[in-house]
Amino acid sequence: MKYSLNGYIYRFVIDPVLSCYYRFIIEELKPDYSVIDIACGTGSLSLAMSGLAYRVTGIDLSEEMIDIATYTAGKKNIENARFEIKDASDLSSYGDNEFDMAVASMAVHQFDADLALVILREMKRIASKVVLMDYNYPIPPGISKLVIFIIERMAKEDHYRNFRRFNSLGGLGYFIEQSGLRASNDRLRKRSAFRIVVCS
Q1: Listing from the earlier edge strand, what are the strands of the sheet with 99-105?
Q2: Nearest-angstrom CA–CA distance, 101 and 124
């Protein structure tokens, strides 16, 4: 499969860095779970969850990301994960509590703040458990922080603006509170650049 520069960076640089954190998310799964992965990107988390979950649905607005996810699933003969080109801001096609778990990994900081709240409220509606992974706040000082700010600054202007807004509001804590979610398990590690929060 041919990758654009963006697709290559996500598939071979970003995904490997994040994959070591996936186990914390997978620990929240049960074998009979139906899961939706919001803004799934290349599907790396979706495919990791498919090893335990009954069914995984990954959605993303990028056709290239969905093509990569579908290609990888086929190459690995994974049959219980499917991927759809879908705008996360419109989850109206899914019913209340249609899924056991909804996941958003490294997505909240990419959205406009108001849009992020809309998406989180919809995730709460369609799933009984919501798991969020994103940058810690504040990001601990050091090389990781420098690399993160460089990567985010290299992204499109609206992406960087949303990243800055995410931090100015206080990170995941703000979005969890404002969306009406309730944190039941906070995987906050003070020295980590990332945070994983389980909500209901």
Answers
A1: 81-85, 55-60, 34-38, 99-105, 127-135, 194-199, 183-186
A2: 9
- Residue 2 in 3-state DSSP? coil
Q: 3-class SS at 42?
A: coil
Express each pLDDT in 57-94 by its tens digit: 999 999 999 999 999 999 999 999 999 999 999 999 99
The pLDDT score that the predictor gives to residue 76 is 97
CA distance 131 to 147: 25
The pLDDT tens digits for 11-62 are: 888 889 899 999 999 999 999 999 999 999 999 999 999 999 999 999 999 9
pTM of the model: 0.95
CA atoms lying within 13 Å on the CB side of residue 150: 6
Q: Which domains does the chain have, with CATH numbers?
A: 5-199 (3.40.50.150)
| Residue count of the chain | 200
Please tell me the distance from the alpha carbon of residue 156 to that of residue 2, in angstroms, as a whole number: 22
User: Given pLDDT bands bounded at 50, 70 and 90, which one contains residue 8?
Assistant: low
